[in-house]
Write a structure and sequence with these properties.
The longest helix has 19 residues, at 256-274. The chain is built from 16 helices and 23 strands. It has 3 domains: 20-103, Archaeosine Trna-guanine Transglycosylase, Chain: A, domain 4; 146-276, Ribose 5-phosphate Isomerase B, Chain: A (3-Layer(aba) Sandwich); 283-512. The protein has helices at residues 20-24, 157-166, 197-210, 230-237, 250-253, 256-274, 304-317, 335-338, 344-360, 374-378, 384-391, 424-433, 463-468, 478-481, 487-502, 508-512; strands at residues 27-28, 36-39, 48-49, 54-55, 65-67, 76-79, 82-87, 96-97, 102-103, 130-135, 141-142, 146-151, 180-184, 215-222, 245-249, 279-283, 288-293, 321-324, 400-404, 414-418, 438-443, 456-460, 475-476. Mean pLDDT is 92; it is low at 1-15. It is globular, with a radius of gyration of 24 Å. The chain is of the alpha/beta class. This is Altronate hydrolase.
């Protein structure tokens, strides 16, 4: 048998002691056909796993896998009855299975475009859940009520931030219905082609966020003369100046100080109108969730992600929308989505985006070519196939209704897919530009993320991390791993909490002020 060097597991001291039930049943079987189980807690070597009739041969960190029978070199490793890699050597039962002995390789896929499609039975309008939202004049519904100050390029960033900073808690006291004045700065807009896909993508991202239902008014700031020309931006996105949408050109105002003063005056003029909006009962069909996972661990695909999937199935039955994204992080399991696509054409759209990513990443040391981040790896994920298996569960088992380009307006209800990178701030920025009025973010390692103008609700995959980082986490899905709550019960809890946050209850990231730096348009096509 070939000797391999095992990776180091990241040791984190837990403030939560395993229960007696967890010690008696320290491993989780996910499917009768699997040849690995997942360690519920850290398992010492020589531990008898009674349910599997095996003895562990090495220490197995929580969230990692154990072989339940002898495996031959090249044999598929099955988790959730899905191949996540192949045994790199002959391996006896009881072995710790991870990236040191699971080989990443191409998996045969049967896309079955649309063959397993079953339409969702959507509740009648009078039966749908309700929340308190801001009803806009065009019929869209907001979960928050912000005034935004937007930089056309990075050259306007200081002016944008100074304008927004002026409107502190005291300045906003007279406008109780307005959540605040939010800055939207980024590092793009210059050093780019003047036309083509990268500029079109930046225009979509800025335009979609400016027109977002959660933005009651906006000031758009440019230096003047940038590659991302402010007039071209307005023309491409159908934007027209009015009482709640203004241009501000720094150079035309006479410099930084005068531009800041003018921007403050423009925002001050908008606030009384923005404050006229009031929350009222509306249908949950108006909730559009951007689905994200970051800092995943071996439990993410067992608790937080599938529980969020249950919640999204409930939302979709209520007429709402869930946006699954992070294209490079569904690679290897995309066939589970194409099979239940609304039409074969929808499934083929998804495969086309996968093919683009494979070509774009050809020969590069990136995730889609097998390697996951050090944090994901330490948390129990051997490769991108295993990560994708868990990540795709955020959408539940709902049919795939449509596939969108990055930051493209989402108009189809139900489960949809948006092509984005796996990097969370970039992915969520595209989802919000597409219309998401909330983000649900699962994490096993403890990502401290927030977003504007749509709030982020964070779901912890395991109880020890939730306890350590309770000030950042909105809900603990680790109780599923602990054996205290079923996935169905957890999904209902998540859905109920989504309704509360959509109605105005602050998320943890909002309470901490996280989100003002997380507007990150996809930097595709930066050439200089």
């Amino acid at each position: 048998m070939t000797t391999t060097v095992a990776p180091k597991a990241l040791n984190i001291t837990s403030s939560v002691e395993p229960t007696e039930a967890m010690r008696k049943n320290p491993a989780i079987r996910l499917d009768p056909n699997d040849n690995v189980v997942v360690a519920r807690i850290e398992i010492p070597p020589g531990t008898q796993i009674t349910s599997e009739n095996v003895v562990t041969l090495q220490k197995v960190p929580a969230g990692h896998k154990i072989a339940t029978r002898d495996l031959k070199q090249g044999e598929p490793i099955l988790k959730y009855n899905t191949t996540i890699g192949f045994a790199s050597e002959d391996t006896p039962a009881g072995t710790w299975m991870h990236s040191h002995n699971i080989r990443f390789d191409e998996v045969q896929k049967d896309y079955r475009h649309g063959l397993d499609y079953v339409p969702t039975e959507v509740l009648a309008p009078e039966q749908r859940a309700r929340f308190l939202g801001f009803l806009r004049a065009d019929g869209r519904v907001a979960t928050r009520n912000w005034v935004g100050v937007f930089a056309v390029t990075h050259r306007a960033a200081t002016v944008v931030r100074q304008i927004a900073r002026h409107f502190d808690k005291d300045a906003m006291a007279s406008y109780p219905q307005v959540d605040g004045v939010a800055p939207f700065t980024h590092e793009l807009g210059n050093g780019m082609e003047l036309s083509g896909e990268p500029m079109q993508m930046l225009h979509r991202t800025l335009g979609g966020t400016i027109k977002h239902p959660n933005i009651a008014g906006a000031v758009i700031v440019a230096y003047g003369g940038e590659d991302n020309d402010i007039d071209a931006l307005f023309a491409s996105q159908g934007l027209q100046e009015g009482p709640l949408l203004k241009k501000l050109i720094i150079r035309d105002e006479g410099g930084t100080r005068r531009a800041i003063e003018r921007g403050i005056a423009l925002v001050r003029e908008m606030l009384p109108a923005a404050d006229q909006h009031k929350r009222e009962p509306v249908s949950a069909e108006h909730i559009m969730i951007g689905l994200q996972c970051g800092g995943s661990d071996g439990f993410s695909g067992l608790s937080a992600n599938p529980a969020l999937g249950v919640a999204m199935e409930i939302l979709i039955r209520n007429g709402g929308t869930a946006i699954l994204s992070e294209t490079s992080e569904i690679f290897g399991v995309e066939q589970t989505l194409t099979a239940r696509a609304r039409t074969p054409e929808v499934g083929k759209k998804l495969v086309a985006r996968i093919d683009w990513w494979l070509k774009y990443n050809e020969g590069r040391d990136t995730q889609i070519n097998g390697q996951v981040s050090p944090g994901n790896n330490a948390g129990g994920l051997a490769n991108v196939l295993e990560k994708s298996l868990g990540g795709a569960k955020k959408g539940g088992n709902a049919p795939l209704m449509e596939v969108y380009e990055y930051a493209e307006p989402v108009t189809q209800h139900g489960l949809v897919f948006m092509d984005t990178p796996g990097y969370d701030p970039v992915a969520a920025t595209g989802q919000i530009a597409g219309g998401a009025n909330m983000v649900c973010f699962t994490t096993g390692r403890g990502s401290c993320y927030g977003s504007l103008p749509a709030p982020t609700m964070k779901l912890a995959s395991n109880t020890p991390m939730y306890v350590r980082m309770e000030a950042d986490m909105d809900i603990n899905c680790g109780v599923v791993i602990d054996g205290d709550v079923s996935l169905a019960e957890m999904g209902q809890r998540i859905f109920d909490q989504i309704l509360r946050h959509a109605s105005g209850e602050p998320t943890k990231s909002e309470a901490l002020g996280v989100g003002g730096n997380e507007f990150v348009p996809w930097p595709l096509g930066v050439t200089v």
